[in-house]
Amino acid sequence: MTALLQPYRLGGLTLPNRVVMAPMSRVRAAADGTATPSMAAYYAQRATAGLIIGEGAHPNAVGRSNPGTPGLHTEEAAASWRPVTDAVHANGGRIFAQIMHGGRVSHPDTTGTRPVGPSAVAAVGDVFTPAGPQPAPVPRALETEEVAPQAHSYAEAARRAVRAGFDGVELHGANGYLISQFLSSEANLRTDVYGGSVANRIRFAVEAAAATADAVGADRTGVRLSPGSAFWGASETDVPELYAALLRELARLGVAYVHLEATAPDELLLDLRRAWPSTLIMNPSVPMGPEQVDRAAADRWLGLGADLISFGRAFISNPDLVERLRAGLPVEPVDEAVYYQGGDQGYLTYPAYRYSA
């Protein structure tokens, strides 16, 4: 069985362990989407992870999902990440930026403009706005000629990210955001080359990944996916065929990794593992689900063929999670009330384990 704490080679990086810090929105960015000194301290505290994947950063103005989220949509926003990447590297870490276009999961009160999506179908549920939760609005369906520029916005953001010191980027293709919306048979009702068949529904994801790999290198490009999920109502049909086809195209591009969430039965996830020829990051839990990733789940999935394991909530309350896993120390529970409250409380205030004398 592969050991969680053994080194691993990912593209041009040597990871000292196979523990990945999963991307988690903490909404501590400035109002204009720039990163803050507190964000630099937060990520630096967790630099013992084999790899940190930063929270979702929007690639353009219309792609911002929530207030308080950071961006890579301008040169100024990208430059604000330099203290973050410098701090992580100074502490011996490695960090990828996650590029997340919210698509229909947004609101005019957040971005100043109507959200866009594959089709004029509203997301299911309330979205966060500066005035609090509000029903998701009906997005404006992108015209055919507008789709490719949105796909290329991931590549443009990736260039900014690498210039800001990130070691690579992850495209957020999961959890009901824009790439996931194009994969969805519910959010995507298009009748052009981006809708209908499996080959058409994966086209946007493939174009975004291809443009990004061309921009910063395939070995610096990863993709996160949530097969069979229905986050924000973005349900999918033909799930095995859809993801098998998508993985074939991503393999052809030679991207560095695929990052799967446990949103499908093990049988399907294992089929995808067998189909994927490169690095697989596995997150053994469902985002915001009842079960958090622990050492037992990590070891199980390493035994099933995953190469790296991503931990989410455990990293919020345990900045020294790798050492706790190494030494078998208690893992502190997280306080959900402070996830999105802003400020440093519940952000920079979780201590490392204190050994008794």
UniProtKB/TrEMBL annotation:
Residues 4-331 form the NADH:flavin oxidoreductase/NADH oxidase N-terminal domain. InterPro entries: Aldolase_TIM, OxRdtase_FMN_N, Oye-like. Pfam families: Oxidored_FMN (PF00724). SUPFAM superfamilies: FMN-linked oxidoreductases. PANTHER family: NADH OXIDOREDUCTASE-RELATED (PTHR22893), NADPH DEHYDROGENASE 2-RELATED (PTHR22893:SF91). This is Alkene reductase. It comes from Streptomonospora nanhaiensis.
